[in-house]
Design a protein that fits this description.
- The protein has 73 residues and is an alpha+beta fold.
- 15% of the residues lie in helices and 37% in strands.
- The protein has a 4-stranded antiparallel β-sheet, with no helix packed on it.
- A hairpin with a 2-residue loop joins strand 2 and strand 3.
- The N and C termini lie far apart (35 Å).
């Protein structure tokens, strides 16, 4: 029962703004990356990946790569 409660806590945990998390790229789309973090998957939109324009996302990122992510408002 404790294991189930822990899983539920992890699934519903909120990320902290400004904190750095490790994530893994699970899917690459033209519009961004889906990254596994905190037992969830989230979208990192292409406009949030670089200060400069990215034309072809596959030239910069590969599935399975670990990333450090910092959440902002």
């Amino acid at each position: 029962m404790e294991k189930a409660k822990e899983i539920i806590r992890n699934l519903t945990a909120e990320v902290e703004v400004g904190k750095v998390y490790k994530g893994k790229i699970v899917t690459i789309k033209d519009f961004g990356l889906f990254v596994a973090i905190l037992s969830k998957q989230g979208l990192c939109h292409i406009s949030e990946l670089s200060h400069s324009r990215i034309d072809k996302i596959e030239d910069h990122f590969k599935e399975g790569i670990q990333l450090k992510l910092r959440f902002s408002k």
